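## Example pair
The file below holds two records. Each record gives the amino-acid sequence first, followed by its structure token line.
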Amino acid sequence: MSGPTTPLGPGSLLWSYAADMRSLLPGAAAGLMQLMHPGIGAGVSQHSAFFDAPFDRIYRSVPQIWATILAPDGEQRAHGIRDLHRAIGGVDEHRRRYHALEPETYWWAHATFTWEIFKAAELFHPRTLTAEDRERLYAETVTWYSRYGVSMRPVPADHASFQSKFWHVCAKRLELTPAAARALDIARYGSETVSLMPVGGARLERAGRLVAERPLRLLTFGCLPSIVRERFDIPWSPADQVRFSALALAHRQGYRVVPTRLNHWTLRSTLRYIGSQTRSQRYQPAA
């Protein structure tokens, strides 16, 4: 695919959706699909403390990734993220070689974030995207990807092609890697040994569990493509679908009374705070 020309910024659809708190709601499902990719799952298992602190990866990564859209120096930040992946490679448990910057592997990580933006717009926003909106938003996600300065070869040309390729990877390429199996177990059953909060003491952690665990499970499994739930026997009942639909409706209606500026300020402030608290824990490649 040739270099994109669609600009980003406060006037773009991507900026508008990414700056909204609802953009993060399908994030756990996107993260799970990343871990189901053989190369990403292996890299996370071998180059991080994922099995000891699985949520830490989310708190370290999301503020940096969202800044590649929202920050004025987004392109420079994207180059920094790319460079952190240069040393991530090896051999997985099936003796297959992998590298984080292999074009299809790196694209899949971004594809899940592209999917996340579209999924948030579809489920949690009252306005329906038109066909023109979808093409415009997709073109902007291609510009977003180009900021990393990696191969554009895997990038589908338009939104329909993206949907087709995304479905194909979900149906044929994803697998239950050890990292994905661990994440699924936590989503299904919870874990008293895993911290959900980036900072805070035991009392805050207990409160976080009471408030977050059930909705997080519902959001994670409800947002997943049905083909992924079916392939990996992820439990999802008609009652779950009713509860999930009600949760989505609550977000569509509830955010109507939240001023847009407050919504955007809350997201930026939350990401800045989490970023500041986790900066010292970010991945550093070996010398």
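Second record, same layout:
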Amino acid sequence: MTDRALAVVRAGALTTVQDRGRPGHAHLGVPRSGALDGPAAALANRLAGNLPDAAVLETTLSGCSLRPRSAVTVAVTGAPCPVAVDGHPAAWGAPVRVRAGSVLDVGAAVRGVRAYVAVSGGIAVEPVLGSRSTDLLSGLGPAPLTDGSVLPLGTPGERHARVDGAPQPAPPGELVLRVTPGPRDDWFTPEALRLFTSRAYRVSPASNRIGLRTTGPALSRARHDELPSEGMVLGAVQVPPDGTPVVFLADHPTTGGYPVIAVVHPADLPAAAQSPPGTPVRFIAVRRAGGA
């Protein structure tokens, strides 16, 4: 039995293995997947001395507890949360050395939703289609963590970052999403288009890695005929029959039959990953590149 492994003491509400995802397989019906808050995951890897594409753990709201079988360097980023080693407070957002057999506890998020736990060497589960990411929609990649499971670790590379801490953006008090209108905005009434970019929505508790669901004013359609299924992209804002927008995140389906009223700017999606239920959401229309 290798000592380069990590035992899961407490899996938490939902903890998955994530890396930069598996883009380029939409024609096979495979979503991109990967860490929802990419910058936070990348920072955790830098702090732990890993390469950018190393796999990390993505926790959801309640954190997790881990016991390494050998000494490792870890870093926790993303949603601010208490971090402890054997019950003693440790740093969040900075490299932490954890001895073999000690327990690292990543506590519940104080703000935000998802924390990222990088371990020196990276989580070395078998890749599927070039990625170690858990995909909740297709079922590809490793299953979400369970208590008692054991994860293999890779060989540590370069030394961890020599810093006391690294700046990170705070989870948003209000989620502002810049959107490019279309491609099916003509399927909605003028009043619906006005409401979409002038009224506040809120993040729904039904949100997950597939999509950020919202509550708020329903958007009325101008067309009610059937829309043939068409390709969906990361950040697409689809409007299902109840009229409330859904922002597609990393595990989104690659096709869909509901009209897409707009597409969110990619740079705004990490903040969506850190917006808990009840967070106000505003959609701000921006012009297409080269548009009038």
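Notes on the second record: The chain has a mean pLDDT of 93. The helical segments are 38-48, 190-198, 269-273.
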